[in-house]
Design goal:
Blueprint (H helix, E strand, L loop, with lengths): L2 H15 L4 H13 L1 H17 L10 H19 L2 H28 L30
Length: about 140
Amino acid sequence: MPAAEQLIEELIASYLSGNASSEEKEKLEAWIRVNEANYRYYQQLKNVWEASNPAFNPGQIDTKKASRRVMERIKKQAAWYESAFVRYWQRIAAVLLLPFIGWSVYLYRETNRPALPAAIQEITVPYGTHARITLPDSSKV
């Protein structure tokens, strides 16, 4: 491995571990900006670093405690849904829902009822005589 590549790897390791000085950070950033190949090489080493140095220890996770906390939150939520107050309002909503739907259907049908076609009739009678006419709605004129 060439000395320059060895130096860059040490610089990247120092940067990723958080031990790099501001001068070393500037050198590394300048090297990364030189070309795309340097940036890709830095990303590869960073991925290897993150895989070998996780941010937390998975063995320290207390799964039983986490499971208990989740179950407590679920039970609190379920208790709220099962409360008398919620059941009362659910029943009221169920009782009011059917009449509301029926009324809505009625109003919809009434507003969308086709209008009867208007019929225009002209009736003329001689002067001085009277005529009596019965209209389609059974009114008399």
